[in-house]
Amino acid sequence: MNDTNVSNTVLDRLTDEWDALTPEAQKAARYVLENPADVGVSTVREIALAARVKPNTFVRMARQVGFEGYDDFREPFRAAIRKGTISFPDRARWLQDIRKSDDLGGLYADMIGATIRNIEETFAAISAEDLKAAAEAIWASRSVYTLGVGVNNANARNFTYLASTGMTQFHAIPRPGSVATDDLAWADGRDVLIAMTCRPYRAEVIEAVRIAREQGMTVVGISDSPASPIILSAHHRFVVAADTPQFFPSSVSTIALLETLLSFVIAVSSEEIVERVEKFHQRRHQLGIYQDDPE
């Protein structure tokens, strides 16, 4: 929910008063912060059931942050629904208001505007069929090598980390102390290379794609131009918008694309992947890696 009044009068109050809330009230507040769209359409009993607390907990929480009761607390959310303001606000007016806010308002508005445009332009040019075809190639492969250097090294490693929660054949390259072409030395037609680079294009990524093609690998290319060397050489081609007011190209669209691609891989995979991911996270809870929510 993006309505400014709701955010200022309710959601911000919850975060400001968080430490003063009881543990049970924090559970209720957490549910509201994470699911604000549910508040305006749910009864106190319904939302309490979803949050796994008693209805009176929501009443007490509302009073603790300055409202007379739950109905008073819920009213701004219901008003937002009536006014139709729970969707994304009018972009032009929103950005103009930010621009006028202070000396850095212009930069802030430019960054937000570029981020939104990059996401829209990227996905407007990509079809679900394109993503499905790449996902099926990835799932059917023996090994998947994800290559990124510079800023894209972090993107490649994040993708590989997420994939490794349910699959074991993913490798981020270059490995520490190695070079990408060496990491691909024993790869062949059973393997996939996901390569990414934006202008100025990195020579080692271009060379790795060339080697991968020579060795019969399937190449998924992610870059910022249809004329990019790695796009021209790829079997599955994804062009991302990376414009930004700052010096470095934006990674927002690349990250969004990788997350979407991974979701497609899981969608075309066998049911065991879901079980593996659940088991992975259960193990982390058992090892105390995650902090569980208070009972």
Automatic annotation (TrEMBL):
Coiled-coil zones = none
**Highest taxon, organism lineage:** Bacteria
What one GO molecular function would you report for this record?
DNA binding
Protein's UniProt keywords contain Transcription? yes
Q: Per the record's keyword annotation, is Aminoacyl-tRNA synthetase included, yes or no?
A: no
CDD domains per the record? Answer: SIS_RpiR
- Residue ranges of every copy of the SIS domain listed in the record: 134-279
- One annotated GO biological process: carbohydrate derivative metabolic process
User: Domain HTH rpiR-type, which positions?
Assistant: 8-84
Q: Which UniProt keywords apply?
A: DNA-binding, Transcription, Transcription regulation
- Entries under Pfam families matching the protein: HTH_6, SIS
What is the protein name given in its UniProt record? Putative HTH-type transcriptional regulator YbbH
